[in-house]
């Protein structure tokens, strides 16, 4: 364990074993990454879906990012229980995105279960 300093000089505890990590070979790092289900390489199909940001219409960076995020969205009228809506709204700005992310996590978990 090493102690590092924040920019204000306060000590930060670091639980990483940097010496062990520095001793790993490139092959060991690649093998570790491939064995991590959260760090699997992208498929050819996933790579094909990437778009270069300069190729997306929009006046500036933020307009382009917003345009990308809307491309795969489908407007939908849906009814949720009031307590569910209140909970997500209480999380603040972006609550609909949060709801989408929760549904996506469930979808991905189900895909992994049935794969």
Q: Which short descriptors sum up this protein?
A:
single chain, 115 residues, mainly alpha, two-stranded antiparallel sheet, 6 helices, 7% strand, extended
Structure description:
It is a single chain. The protein is mainly alpha-helical and 115 residues long. The protein folds into 3 domains: 1-41, no CATH class; 42-73, no CATH class; 76-115, no CATH class. The chain contains 6 helices and 2 strands. It has a two-stranded antiparallel ribbon with strand order 1-2. The radius of gyration is 21 Å and the shape is extended. It starts with a strand and ends with a helix.
What is the strand and helix layout of this fold?
Blueprint lengths: L1 E4 L5 E4 L3 H6 L2 H10 L8 H5 L12 H11 L10 H9 L4 H19 L2
Antiparallel strand pairs: 1-2
């Amino acid at each position: 364990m090493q102690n590092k300093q924040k920019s204000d000089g306060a000590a930060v505890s670091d639980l990483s074993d940097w010496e062990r990590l520095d001793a790993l070979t490139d092959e060991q790092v690649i093998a570790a990454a491939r064995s991590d289900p959260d760090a699997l390489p992208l498929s050819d199909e996933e790579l094909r879906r990437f778009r270069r940001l300069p190729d997306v219409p929009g006046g500036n960076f933020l307009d382009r990012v917003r345009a990308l995020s809307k491309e795969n969205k489908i407007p939908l009228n849906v009814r949720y229980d009031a307590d569910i809506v209140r909970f997500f709204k209480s999380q603040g700005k972006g609550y609909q995105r949060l709801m989408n992310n929760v549904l996506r996590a469930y979808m991905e978990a189900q895909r992994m279960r049935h794969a």
